[in-house]
Amino acid sequence: MNDRAALDLLVSQGPLTRTQIGELTGLSKPTASQLLGRLEAAGLVRTTGNVTGRPGPNAQLYEVNPDAAYVAALAVDPCGITAAVADVTGQVLGEERIGTDAVDEDAQDRTARLVAAAVDGALAKAGLARERLHGAVIGTPGALDPQTGVLRYAPHLPGWQSRTLREELAGVLGVPIVIENDVNLAAVAEQHDGAAQDFDDFVLVWADEGVGAAIVLGGQLLRGATGGAGEIGYMPLPDAPLARDGDRSAARPDAGGGFQRLVGAPSVVELAREHGVRDARTVGEALADDGVRAEVARRLATGLAAVVAVVDPRLVVLSGEVAQAGGEALRELVEGEFTGLALPRPELRLSNIGGNPILIGALRTALAEARNTVFDTA
Q: What is the rounded CA–CA span in Å between residue 336 and residue 333?
């Protein structure tokens, strides 16, 4: 327990002296010295210079040894895969983007080959061999059904519905694999690095090409019996056609149904054209129009009211392309529309994660998995 406490402090607070570690953990100087000697011998910590400019002998600084473990994080979308490789401290060393056209559609084991290409590209940029990896976390639309092992709620990802997907990917990479819902990973990023820090009960609503939510209660992700908790894109709402037989395609705004049809990125662009903004090609251009922005806010508020009435979170975080493009102006309109729609009134915030929140959440999860194993000195 003392070893893990010291290692967690070194990860979160950077290089520390023996005295600082003792003060922060409550350990005596001899115990702290023994602890650091043990961790150094195990290859988990290393010295990194001295504290200077103070009276008395210069104190040595200790840090977590970055070479103790390396992890891969991947974010999957219909157009390709983004992979990042980081050391156990969380420092990203290499990143690679592979399009779905990198491997022929008819190729055998196409999905595994795409994943391997993305990871190998990131490893090459990091100057590492695949054997150095400790584990990998992959964020995908949909979720693995814990009963069947099949990726559900993601019909737009051909090749990812194999019943042995996790085993196939673990075999090609040679490391343990975690496959997680992409919006759940975005919530992990918000909880650790973004708008949901210090919140144990919140909902992240993702409005992008696809629409979904991540529900965090008591600090834990709510997954559901089949991994489908938060699939609000299918949620039936007024003015939206029903989504039947899993039809929630993001490829065309006139396909699918439910909440996805109201606030998905293609539908927002289509709405702008209905409002006379004929030259709108992007969500940002569509939401620049006051009328479009007001209508999207009304639609978002209606869907949020249904979620809040069931979950009653303290916070709702708006994320994804639609929320980012609409910005604070859209958030304020949603907040105004929300008045009177639901009795609970959670705080409403925009995501403030810089970079790809799915990739950041995957990296956070991969690091937690690696540290739980590598930092166990029992």
A: 5
